[in-house]
Amino acid sequence: MGNVESGPRRPSGTQWTIASGGQEAVVVEVGGGLRSYQVDGVPYLDGYGEDELCVGSAGQVLAPWPNRIRDGRYAFQGRNLQLALTEPARQNAVHGLVNWMPWHLVEQADDEVTIGCELPPQPGYPWSLSLRTRARVGAEGLRVSHEATNTSAEPCPFGLAVHPYLRVPGVAVDDLLLRVPGRSRLLVDGRLLPIGEAKVAGSEYDFTEPRRIGDLVLDTPFGDPEPESDGTFAASLASPDGSTVVRVDADASFGWWQVFTGDTLTGERYRRSVAVEPMTCPPDAFRSGRDLIVLAPGETWRGGWGITVTTPASSTPPTPSI
What we know:
Layout: E1 15-20, E2 23-28, E3 34-39, E4 42-43, E5 61-62, E6 68-70, E7 73-76, E8 79-82, E9 92-94, E10 104-109, E11 112-119, E12 129-138, E13 141-150, E14 156-158, E15 161-162, E16 165-166, E17 177-179, E18 182-188, E19 194-199, E20 211-212, E21 219-225, E22 233-238, E23 245-250, E24 256-260, E25 274-279, H1 285-288, E26 293-295, E27 300-310
Antiparallel strand pairs: 1-2, 2-3, 3-4, 5-15, 6-9, 7-8, 10-11, 11-12, 12-13, 13-27, 14-26, 16-25, 17-20, 17-22, 18-19, 18-21, 21-24, 22-23, 23-27, 24-25
């Protein structure tokens, strides 16, 4: 089901559509991200149109670091490095280096697609990486797996996150029931960078059990997640009566979760959906070293996550495999 480009080029490049059992997802060339995901024709991912530029990092892959690096500066193994400030208003380097790069098709079937990206060395990140993303849809929902291989001759720092905006159609963000596995949250400054940490128990940020979001503004990193019985982590959004649940789960590689209620987005996207972002490390990890992955030459990191949807007309979704 590959799509060949003709005529004017779409802002997100080539579109790769996969479908099975009433589920459909579209993966795009620019950034290798997920542009849409729907079940029985109902969109549960707040993506963007074929002819739109990606807004708010919707569905993007964030690597070789997630979130933000203060001033774009960090030191690694005795070398001081400076990244471009891609969030100039806050003077941060944000969301890595591959979210606007072209990804290429590796392999495709009706229900599955694998794409790749070769990140070259560059100022601020003088290492090369080979990345692969595989997405598939089926009875267990949407499953996505990632690989990153250090193809340079030296160890390199690495982190990865994904940026899906989730929605329950017809339900306002304020009325959604949010569950986040994190038992702590990072306190952040006006640049959304960590300055402390607090337990969530008993606070307005405690979403370890499903709870209405209300008017709470979230652009918050959550850590210390409570694992599921199989060792994975899971977050969810649900309708007020709990009958429709959009669940994001991730393997143990993703020990951090950023939740963003879209308050800084403009127009119709303002508080229209909630970004629930599994991350391998917290913001500013290149500086703090907290949960930072260091890949030896030739070493490959692997991780996976997915989305399942339960509606009144569906049975309990199967246990996902990652």
